[in-house]
Structure formats: structure tokens, C-alpha cells
Specification:
heterodimer; A: Rossmann fold; Elongation Factor Tu (Ef-tu), domain 3; B: alpha/beta; 2 domains
């Protein structure tokens, strides 16, 4: 062991060699570095030159340092350094007694403790020593020396106990063992935590052990923490985080978990370097806070780091006493009903039995409730004295006005009241019912929004005096108080100037009522109410364990040895009563490892005069290899330095220019190669994955939103201004026609740049072919291909049926067709055919024979339909699967559709047959309908069969 | 020509190791020789275009032709043996020889193997190439080329191959300065070396060579690094021939001193050389071999009494 470092040496004496370093330093200083040897014929001339000043005659200081470090490393390595050395034991042959602390504090680093014990036993096995292992909690039976190998297997089964182990109880066992094996050596794997009886144990152990060699292993692990004194106080659930060891500042997190194991909230805690105690505040709404059943320190596995909460930490119990008779005659209209409904979400409500208010109050005070609600109780009579004391001690008394209170009250009200009350908006009153106007900024309702649905028709009025504004929590629109409160001692009296039922106001019907009560309740202290049953004499009823904690703080099934606890049990967990939940689900009793007043303290073992050691993480690491490697590295470095000093660099300097050039070339090649690979990657990616991968720019998002809000016809912008204008006007005309004739009302046509814009928003894209337009790029064609594959339809229009050379198939040789063919050659185009008479496109909206545009001679080419021989030849319409992804015409459809802004046609028609333009529009409607509805019309042929099957 | 020059050179190192080392060096050199020969031929070819033959009668040692005796000539010129065969008197003419013999000596000591990062030629390669090329040119010009202790003077057409073979198969130790031999009075000596030996040794050597009145040309072959001293940092300089080393803490601060020393050394070399009437040339291996060849050939031509070598090329003396 070297100081606090987990470092030991196999041969510590060799470290004395470090003393030789100064001598080495002196020697090294004198020996200059080796010169560079140069064969030089005229050396004879040099003999005559007087020796000049010899600057580097002495080795530079840093080279000396390097060599000294090298020598030190070699000495260090020769001494056999060992990182994480195992816990040392003394004599090689004495039997070994291993004491293991196995209380909750040991659980946090249990693996390390077990491993340390295992290492000890392994070495004892190697040395053929007998071993005895005594977990300090297991005092029931005596221990004896065993073979280490067998004991190692047993030791693996050891588990920490979930409670504080009283080590003193183990003293007799140790004593008996030491009497039988007096020469034993003792190793105590301690957890370093003293829960109160540590001194007694250490004194006893010292007495028993006498002068036997003893090692206490403690520390080196994470500091165990404990939770205690959970308190569901007003506003927050607080819990104390305790630790025995100090010295480091720590931060952590407390998880609040409900009975089902769901996390409800977190709270941080922080230890200063010298703190033993920190507090965590879990600020949650009181309803959620009431569900917290378990608090635990995040990341710490120990029963001590868990605090279980039962009903005693939960809801505040509130007694409700009503003075009005309506509560009994019409319970659903009574104040008690409204109050219990409003309070139930966050508090336990106990209603007074049918007894006089004073007696009911007396009973509630017996039960030590933190809060009482008196609804229209005018006078508490004989309970007044006790009530006063109770308020002084922290009770919260909430009173509601009513006829009884208005008729005459005691002085347990925050303000002086006028007799009789006040009626607003009644038949005999000029005043209107008042609204709730404001919450006092200083009062607890300040954070609540002022409701506008509360009207007050009657109230009791306070005598105005100087203290009234300070005591007012809520006021009505005319400034009269609605809620007043006064602190008395540690307690509080709150008065609602209206009834708790709806006779005087709408308040009990409002959500604000619940909020106001919630805020009020949160002011009440959290002193747990004595159990009603217990008060009635049920104390002592034993409840059996349902879920207990194991040593690591996890719930397990209780063992058979676990004994029931009395239902009011508030003691510390023990082996008979391990921490956990006891009793039935509705009346759980939580037993915790630590009591609120428990404080773990560091264990002082100095009295034992024992060798002290720390736990080790990880296997022992022999450092000789790495240190020798470092030394060899330094040797190589030294050689390099000598080489450079001797002028080796000068030899390199000759090649410096070449080397520089080489580096430049490499760098340049790298710079050139990088973008190329990047490019290669981008071309490798399928283009359709681009939109998903790259986030959309704002313009793209705008475009996408506009394009998808409405169906739009779209055309490809060719870059030829005339063509694009006609396309736009044509599609506008078709849009208008569609809106007039069909149920489809598309938006304004959209011009698309296929290389940039997202195409998939458009069902059909009109693509005029212009001979002057450049062929789209490969990437663009890929996008178009993807669009067509994903169900889009492209309507190519070469617009040159009139230019087609005469003869059969002349139109396929027109210049536009040639340009189109160049485009399509790079696309995956299905087989095409001139549209057949029975194609569904002829029937999608209008019945069409052909598809004229400005010209009538061109034919419309569509995807070839599959030759289906079984098909009924009389079937009027045929369609393949889906929609033809491509249509080609040369009739200049857009030219025929194009309208000027005044509604007149833009271009003349050829040959100008009557109704040619009308048919051109109809062709457009059919095409759009086809693209939108697909083969729906083709399926219409089945309607008679379907109807027949339906029996109509 | 003195035959003692051609005596078997004494192997100074009797142990096997230097011999083997020399053999190893030879084989290393042998691997380079073909390249050097090619380069030498290429370099020589650039010069040969400007050569004119010297094939004419004159004072010389070799038979050239018989001609009729003309009256008035000294009678002792008559070759009686020839004249006895028929009724005419003949005079035996000999071929004219301008400079007789040229001794090429290239330093092959380890220091010549040095080549810095500033050039791809080692000093030895350059020395061999230029000596081969010069030999080729001179042989074509009728001269005889020899290597002291290694090759007899010869004017054979394949002089380069002969020289190369002799050099490869030479297993003796390789000194930094030419061995002590006695060139004939009118022969010429061409020495290629880096000349880093001390001035005293150099002075002794060149004095001995020039003692008989031979003329000579000394070329100091230098690596550019040996002039510019492009070193910095902590450097240990090792003498190539095992004469020790010196460590500079910061070599860059030595540069100016070194260059001053170098200049002094060169000045001393030049002074010693030119005092004997020999020429001294400095050649750096980062310059072309042709340049040195033109310079050397020009200098040799300048001394020839009646050579018809075109002297256009002499302008390129470094």
C-alpha cells in the first residue's frame, strides 16, 4: 500500500534503487551525446584547428530528465508494482476468521465485499488455511473452521439484510470460535457505519480478540446513503438523506414511486463536503403526493435507501361538522356532501356522526385531525376550549357561514361579524348578486385564477376595521370579503362568508371551490391522524407482511420467518420485521429500515489497533508490463533524441523538400478524394429517400403546405416562356371547366421544376415537350421515374400533331416525339399503345371517342392494357391495375384549354370543327378524373351483379 | 626507359590482411571499371576530333622507313646492311617522337573513394576516368602511356583496357602519393591525387620525381564537400586512412578556419609544384571530366615542341 493509492509492490526493497538516481544524474550530465561520424579525407587539416567552444558538450537537462525517468521506471517496474493489491493478511498458516457486515449499509457495495471475501478465501485455499465466515447478522448458530473451497461456494449465497444489524449480538459467537481456535487471524469486512452500538461491539471485539492480528477493511466503496424521516408536510413531501461518511460533496436524486411502481416524481438532494444529512423536497400536487408509496435514492440498491410510506403519510384527514339540519334530511343537498366531494380528491374526509356539533368536534379532536371544517356551526359551545388549544398547536379550522353562524357566532372567527348577514338581489333588495372579484395577493389563493361563474346572493358581513384587508383572502365585486383568515398561534382560522351548500352562493358548484379548499388544506399540518379504529380500541391488531424489502431494497415475497406487526407499528425494522408493507391493501402499514430519528455515524475502529485496508474494485493488475513498456518507449524516444542531436535531422533536411512535396501531394489527394467520395455516396442514395433524409427548407415547407391544402393541376416548367404561359393558362382553363362541370374544384395550377419540387403532391402532371428545352438531368429523371412508380400520372404533350410527317405512324416521327423519345429513353416506361375504344379513360366522366386538343390528328397513347382473353368481350370498359402512369398526346391539349383572362380562347383550333374546344375540355376532364379515380368506372360494370347479389 | 621501374613492386604488408583488403578494394573497383571505361572513351572522343596525327619521320627510337641517300648527307647515316642488298645507298629513318613516354599515376588510396552528398562521383572515379581518357587521347597521338610499377609504357590501341586490367589486378598497398620512381628526362608525369598529405611529404615526392628533369602535371582532385565544408552540429570527422579523428562540437563554426587552412595548403602545393616547372590544377568532382581533360591536354600540348595538337582547347584551363 502506498498512501491512499491502491498500489503495492512485490519487492518494495528494490525501490531503494531510486536512491541511485542522483548519482546517475551526475554521470549523465558528464557524458555528451554521441556525435555524428563523418568520414572526411582532409581531416588532417582539421587537426590544426583549435577546439572551438563545445556547446552541447553536456547532455541537455531534458535529456537527463528523460533518462532519469527511464531509470526510475525500470526500478519501479523491477519492484513489481501491483495495482489493486488484494487485502493483505498476516501469517501464512493461521486460520482465518472473516467477519462480514451484512446490514443495509453493506448492500450498496455488496459485490465488492463478497469479492474481497472471495479473494481472501481463495488465497487461504492456496495457502491451505482453514477459514470461518461469520456474517454479523447470523448469530443463531456457531461457526467453525471450514475448507476455504466449500466456504467460497457458501459465501456466494450471502445476501445483505434489509435492517440494521446489531453487531454486539455476534460477540458471543466470535468469542466461542476464538476459544476453540485461539491462533485465528481476524479480517473484518466492515461497512463503516455505526448505528449506535458500534462502540460496544468494538470494545467487545477488542477484549475477545486480544492481540490476534486483525485487519479491518472499510471504505474505498461508494458511500452508503439512507432515507429517513419522510414527512408529507404542507406544500411538499420531504425526506432526509443520511450518510455516515463525510468528506465529499455529493448530489443525487430521490425517486418517488407509487404502489404499482410507477414513477411519480423526482427530487434532487445535495450533500456539502461536511454534511451527514441532506433533505430532498418532492413538490407534487397533493393528490399525487398522496399516492407516493416508496421513496428511493436513484442508483442506490439498499434497503436503507428506500423509505416506504403508508396511509400515515398520505391524506390529511379532515373532520367535517355540519350544523344544518339539511345534511340529515337531504344529504345530497347538504353542506357535508359538497364538502366531502370537494375534499375527497386530496384528503380523507370524516363526517360527524349524527351528534351535536360540539360532541363531534370533541371526537375529531380526540382523533388529532389536522383540520376541521365547520359548516354553519354557530357556536361550538363546550368544545371551544379544546378547539382553541388545538388551533394554537397548529390546527386549521375552516368555517362556513350559514344561518346559524349569522345568527350568532363564537369568537372562533377571523373577523368580527355583523349579525344577520346580508341578502343581495333578493326581492327586498336593491343590490344585485355579487360576483367573486379578486383573490388577495398575499393569500394562498393568489395563484388561482379568479372564476367568473361565482355569484353570491347572501353572505355574512365583517365589521370593517383596520385588520380586515390583511385578513381577507377573497373579495366580492363590491369589496366585501368572501374569505377571511386569521393566524392563531401555529394554527389558522379560515372563514368562508357563505354556506358550503348552494343556498347562499354558487361557490360550491364552481371549480374554484375545490381549488380554494385544496390550497387551504395544503396549509394544514401533516400530523398523522390517529387511526379511528385504533382510537376505538383496535390497537394491537396484528397484520401480516404482504411485501417486504430484501437487502437491496427490492420488494420480495415475505419469508416464513417474518412475523406480523401490530397495525400501529412504528418501530425499526428487524430480522423479525423486515422493512416492507404489512397488512391488507387498504390499510397498509409501512415498516422502514430507519426510524426518523436514526442517524448513521462513521464507525471508529482505531481502538482495535487493527491494520486498516480499503475495498478494491477490479482485479489486481500487475503493472510491471505497462511500466516496462513505458520504459522501452522512453528508450526509443531517447534513441530518437540522440539521433536528432547527432545531426540525423540534417540528413533528413536534404530530403525535406521532397518530403514537403509528398505531404502536399497526399494532402491534396485527400482533399480531392473527400468530396468525390461524398458525391459518390450521394449518387448511391436512392433519390426518393432524399426528402425524408434532408429536413425541408422553409420554402419547401411552404410549397408542400400550399400544394397539399387543395388538389392542384400541375405542369412542368420547360423554361420556354411561351410554352409555360400556355400550359399555365390551359390548366387554368381546365381548372375552371372542372369546377363548372364536376365536383372537383382544383386550386390554381402549379408550375413545377421537376429537379427541385416535390412531385408526389400532384395526381397528374402536364408536361409539354418543347424541342428547345434541355433534356432533364439524370437525377431529375430519377425523380420523375419515382413519381410515376408511386402512382403519379404524367401527361406528355408534344403539341405538334400538325407538324407530323404524313403517312402511317407519322406522328411518331414528329420532332416533338423525337425529343420525347430522348427523354423517355432514360425512364422505365411500360409498354404503350394507342388508346383503345374500351379503355376506361374513354368513360371516366364523359363518353369520349377521341381526345382532341388544338389538333385532332394525334392519338393518345397510354400504358398497354394486359391482353385478357377470358374477359367478356362485351365488357364496355377495361382498365388495368391502377392508373396509366404515362399518357402521350400530340394534340396540344393545353393550347385548346388556354383561356385569356377575359375568358376568351387564347389560341385558334385546327381544323376548328364545331365543339372541338368543348371536346378538348372533356378530354381534359376525363384525364383528370382518370388520374383521380383510377379504374373505378371500369368496375361500374359489376354493379348489376353486385345489386343482384344484394338481392335488390 | 629504366627497367627498374618495372620491377615487381614490393608488398610492404606481408600479412594476408592488407592483401585481402586490397583485393577487396580491387574487386569493388573492378565492378565500376566498365562504367569508367565507357565514360573515359566518351570523354576522350570529345577531344580526339581535334587531333592531328604526328605520323612523320623524325628523331625517335623506332624504325620509320628507308630512303635513298642523297649526296651531301653525312655518310654515317647510311644503313649499310640495307644498302648492301642492291646498288643504291639507303638511309634508315626513324619515327619522330615528341615526348616519348607519359606516366599516369592516379591515387587509389582510401581517401579517394570519398564522395559527399554534393556529387555522385567519387574522387577515384574521376581520377581514373580522366587518366584513361587522357591516355586514349595521347595514345592516338602516338604517345606511350605507362603506370609506374604497374604498366610498361605502351602505345597499344587498347591502352585503356590494359591500364584497367593492371589497376584491377594490383594487389599492393595503395599509397597516397606516387611511389618513388625515376622517369626518363623527357618523359612527363601526370599525377591525380587529393594531396591531403603533409606538404613536407609532397615536397619530397615531387622533388624526387623531378630530379631527372621529367616534367609533370599535378591535379588535385577534390570533392565539393572538401571545399565548402557543409557540416553542422556535433560531428566526429574521421580520417579516411586511419590517421585518427577529431570531434567538432559545432561543425559550422569550423568552416571558416577550415577554408583558410585549405587555402594555405593549396597555396603551398602550388608553390612547391610550380617551383619545379610543373603545373598544378585543382579539379572538383562536381565539374565535368571533359573540362579537366581539355585543360590537361592543353598543358601537355603547350610543352610539345612541334605538336600539331590543336590548341583551341587550352582556353578551358580551370
Amino acid at each position: 500500500m502506498m498512501g491512499s493509492l491502491p498500489l503495492a509492490f512485490a519487492q518494495p526493497l528494490i525501490l531503494l534503487g531510486l536512491l541511485s538516481l542522483p548519482v546517475l544524474w551526475w554521470l549523465l550530465r558528464l557524458v555528451p551525446p554521441r556525435p555524428r561520424v563523418v568520414s572526411f579525407p582532409p581531416t588532417r587539416l582539421l587537426f590544426d584547428i583549435a577546439p572551438k567552444e563545445e556547446t552541447p558538450s553536456r547532455t541537455p537537462w531534458w535529456l537527463i530528465l528523460l533518462r532519469l525517468l527511464l531509470a526510475a521506471l525500470v526500478i519501479f517496474a523491477a519492484a513489481g508494482p501491483l495495482w489493486n493489491p488484494p487485502v493483505a493478511t498476516g501469517a501464512k498458516n493461521a486460520p482465518l476468521l472473516i467477519l462480514v457486515d451484512d446490514g443495509w449499509a453493506a448492500a450498496a457495495a455488496w459485490d465488492v465485499r463478497l469479492r474481497t471475501a472471495d479473494e481472501l478465501m481463495a488465497r487461504a485455499e492456496a495457502d491451505s488455511r482453514g477459514v470461518a465466515l461469520l456474517p454479523l447478522s447470523e448469530t443463531a448458530r456457531d461457526i467453525s473452521l471450514q475448507v476455504a473451497g466449500a466456504l467460497r461456494v457458501q459465501a456466494k449465497q450471502l445476501k445483505p439484510k434489509p435492517y440494521s444489524v446489531d453487531r454486539v449480538e455476534a460477540l458471543p459467537v466470535i468469542d466461542r470460535f476464538l476459544k476453540t481456535t485461539p491462533e485465528a487471524e481476524i479480517v473484518w469486512l466492515s461497512d463503516g457505519v455505526d448505528m449506535g452500538k458500534g462502540t460496544g461491539f468494538i470494545d467487545g471485539l477488542k477484549q475477545i480478540a486480544g492481540s490476534r492480528p486483525m485487519t479491518v477493511v472499510s471504505g474505498g466503496t461508494t458511500i452508503p446513503h439512507a432515507l429517513a424521516a419522510a414527512d408529507n408536510a404542507a406544500g411538499a413531501l420531504t425526506v432526509k438523506v443520511l450518510r455516515a461518511q463525510t468528506g465529499v460533496a455529493e448530489n443525487g436524486l430521490i425517486h418517488a414511486i407509487d404502489l404499482k411502481g410507477l414513477p411519480l416524481g423526482d427530487a434532487p438532494f445535495a450533500f456539502g463536503a461536511g454534511d451527514r444529512e441532506a433533505e430532498a423536497r418532492i413538490t407534487l400536487p397533493v393528490e399525487i403526493r398522496n399516492d407516493v408509496a416508496r421513496l428511493e435514492i436513484a442508483g442506490e440498491r439498499s434497503a436503507g435507501a428506500v423509505q416506504l410510506l403508508d396511509n400515515r403519510w398520505r391524506r390529511r384527514t379532515i373532520g367535517v361538522v355540519s350544523g344544518s339540519a339539511a345534511d340529515r334530511s337531504q344529504p345530497l343537498l347538504g353542506a357535508s356532501y359538497y364538502l366531502s366531494r370537494a375534499l375527497n380528491p386530496f384528503a380523507d374526509v370524516r363526517l360527524a356522526e349524527s351528534v351535536a356539533p360540539a360532541e363531534a368536534i370533541g371526537r375529531f379532536l380526540d382523533q388529532r385531525l389536522p383540520m376541521l371544517v365547520l359548516a354553519d356551526v354557530g357556536n361550538v359551545a363546550e368544545a371551544r376550549g379544546r378547539l382553541d388549544t388545538w388551533i394554537e398547536n397548529g390546527g386549521v379550522l375552516v368555517r362556513f357561514a350559514g344561518p346559524h353562524l349569522a345568527a350568532g357566532s363564537d369568537d372562533l372567527v377571523p373577523v368580527r361579524l355583523r349579525r344577520g348577514g346580508r341578502i343581495l338581489g333578493g326581492a327586498l333588495s336593491w343590490e344585485k348578486p355579487q360576483q367573486l372579484a379578486a383573490f388577495s395577493r398575499d393569500g394562498p389563493f393568489a395563484s388561482t385564477a379568479v372564476p367568473n361563474d361565482v355569484t353570491v346572493t347572501r353572505q355574512v358581513l365583517a365589521e370593517p376595521d383596520a385588520t380586515l384587508p390583511d385578513r381577507t383572502w377573497a373579495t366580492l365585486a363590491d369589496g366585501t370579503p368572501l374569505v377571511t383568515a386569521q393566524k392563531r398561534g401555529k394554527g389558522l382560522i379560515v372563514l368562508f362568508h357563505v354556506t358550503a351548500d348552494t343556498r347562499w352562493s354558487d361557490l360550491p358548484l364552481s371549480g374554484a371551490f375545490v381549488d380554494m379548499l385544496r390550497q387551504t388544506v395544503s396549509l394544514a399540518g401533516a400530523t398523522p391522524a390517529a387511526d379511528g379504529d385504533a382510537a376505538a380500541g383496535g390497537r394491537g391488531q396484528a397484520v401480516a407482511a404482504t411485501r417486504v424489502l430484501d437487502g437491496f431494497g427490492a420488494f420480495t415475497v415475505p419469508a416464513a420467518t417474518v412475523r406480523p406487526v401490530p397495525s400501529g407499528f412504528a418501530g425499526r425494522a428487524s430480522s423479525d420485521h423486515p422493512p416492507g408493507f404489512y397488512g391488507p391493501p387498504e390499510g397498509l402499514v409501512a415498516v422502514n429500515t430507519l426510524l426518523p430519528e436514526d442517524r448513521p455515524l462513521p464507525l471508529d475502529v482505531t481502538a482495535l489497533n487493527a491494520r486498516q485496508d480499503v475495498y478494491r474494485f477490479g482485479e489486481p493488475v500487475d503493472l510491471r508490463g505497462p511500466v516496462f513498456m513505458a520504459a522501452f518507449g522512453l528508450i526509443a524516444l531517447d534513441a530518437l533524441v540522440v539521433f536528432v542531436l547527432a545531426g540525423g535531422l540534417a540528413a533528413f533536411a536534404r530530403r525535406r523538400s521532397a518530403a514537403t512535396a509528398a505531404i502536399l501531394i497526399v494532402a491534396l489527394a485527400g482533399a480531392l478524394a473527400t468530396p468525390r467520395t461524398a458525391q459518390a455516396q450521394s449518387t448511391l442514395m436512392p433519390p426518393q429517400s432524399l426528402p425524408q433524409r434532408t429536413p425541408l427548407s422553409p420554402q419547401q415547407q411552404d410549397f408542400a403546405i400550399k400544394a397539399t391544402q387543395q388538389t392542384h393541376l400541375a405542369y412542368i416548367v420547360t423554361g420556354d416562356a411561351d410554352v409555360d404561359e400556355i400550359s399555365r393558362a390551359g390548366l387554368s382553363g381546365l381548372t375552371l371547366f372542372l369546377a363548372q362541370r364536376t365536383a372537383l374544384e382544383p386550386g390554381e395550377p402549379v408550375g413545377l421544376d421537376p429537379s427541385r419540387d416535390e412531385l408526389s403532391f400532384f395526381p397528374v402532371i402536364y408536361w409539354p415537350i418543347s424541342e428547345r428545352a434541355a433534356k432533364p438531368s439524370r437525377a431529375t429523371l430519377d425523380r420523375i421515374d419515382t413519381y410515376m412508380k408511386q402512382g403519379g400520372t404524367v401527361l406528355f404533350d408534344t403539341r405538334d400533331a400538325i407538324d407530323a410527317p404524313p403517312g402511317p405512324d407519322g406522328e411518331t416521327r414528329s420532332p416533338g416525339m423525337v425529343a420525347l423519345r430522348a427523354i423517355l429513353s432514360s425512364l422505365d416506361v411500360p409498354e404503350l399503345e394507342p388508346i383503345r375504344a374500351d379503355h376506361v379513360l374513354n368513360k371516366t366522366f364523359f363518353l369520349m371517342k377521341d381526345f382532341p386538343g388544338r389538333f385532332t390528328t394525334g392519338r393518345l397513347w397510354v400504358e398497354a392494357l394486359p391482353e385478357d382473353v377470358e374477359e367478356d368481350p362485351s365488357r364496355p370498359a377495361r382498365a388495368g391495375d391502377g392508373v396509366s402512369s404515362i399518357m402521350i398526346t400530340s394534340n396540344d391539349l393545353a393550347g385548346a384549354w388556354a383561356l385569356r383572362p377575359d375568358g376568351q380562347a387564347m389560341l385558334p383550333l385546327v381544323p376548328g370543327e364545331p365543339r372541338q374546344r368543348e371536346f378538348a375540355f372533356r378530354a381534359g376532364v376525363n384525364i383528370v378524373m382518370y388520374a383521380l379515380t383510377g379504374n373505378y368506372k371500369a368496375d361500374q360494370v359489376h354493379i348489376p351483379a353486385l345489386l343482384e347479389r344484394l338481392g335488390q | 626507359m629504366a627497367d627498374n621501374v618495372l620491377a615487381e613492386p614490393t608488398v610492404t604488408g606481408t600479412s594476408a590482411t592488407p592483401v585481402n583488403a586490397a583485393a577487396g578494394k580491387s574487386s569493388k573497383l573492378a565492378a565500376r571499371i566498365p562504367r569508367l571505361i565507357l565514360e573515359a572513351r566518351r570523354v576522350a572522343a570529345t577531344l580526339i576530333h581535334g587531333l592531328h596525327g604526328r605520323r612523320r619521320a623524325g628523331t625517335g627510337e623506332n624504325f620509320w622507313q628507308y630512303r635513298h641517300f642523297s649526296s651531301g648527307e653525312p655518310a654515317n647515316r647510311i644503313d649499310w646492311r640495307r644498302s648492301a642488298r642492291d646498288d643504291h645507298l639507303y638511309v634508315r629513318e626513324r619515327e619522330w617522337e615528341a615526348s616519348h613516354t607519359i606516366w599516369m599515376w592516379a591515387d587509389r588510396s582510401p581517401s579517394m573513394e570519398f564522395s559527399s552528398h554534393l556529387t555522385e562521383w567519387s574522387k577515384l572515379d574521376r581520377a581514373l576516368v580522366v587518366s584513361f581518357a587522357l591516355s586514349e587521347v595521347l595514345v592516338q597521338g602516338g604517345e606511350r602511356i605507362g603506370i609506374p610499377f604497374l604498366m610498361r609504357p605502351s602505345s597499344s590501341r587498347n591502352v585503356i583496357e590494359t591500364m584497367a586490367q593492371r589497376i584491377i589486378h594490383d594487389r599492393t598497398e595503395r599509397p597516397s602519393l606516387p611511389p618513388n620512381f625515376a622517369p626518363a628526362p623527357f618523359s612527363e608525369v601526370v599525377i591525380f591525387s587529393d594531396l591531403w598529405s603533409p606538404i613536407s611529404e609532397y615536397k619530397k615526392m615531387i622533388g624526387q620525381l623531378a630530379a631527372n628533369g621529367a616534367r609533370g602535371h599535378v591535379v588535385q582532385v577534390c570533392d565539393p564537400a572538401e571545399e565548402t565544408f557543409p557540416y553542422s552540429g556535433r560531428v566526429e570527422f574521421v580520417e579516411s586512412e586511419g590517421l585518427g579523428s577529431v570531434t567538432a562540437g559545432r561543425a559550422e563554426t569550423w568552416r571558416n578556419d577550415y577554408q583558410a587552412l585549405l587555402a594555405n595548403h593549396r597555396a603551398a602545393l602550388r608553390a612547391e609544384t610550380e617551383a619545379l616547372g610543373w603545373t598544378f590544377t585543382v579539379h572538383r568532382t562536381d565539374r565535368g571530366p571533359t573540362e579537366l581533360l581539355f585543360a590537361l591536354h592543353g598543358r601537355m600540348g603547350a610543352h610539345s615542341v612541334q605538336t600539331a595538337i590543336n590548341s583551341r582547347h587550352t582556353g578551358s584551363v580551370a
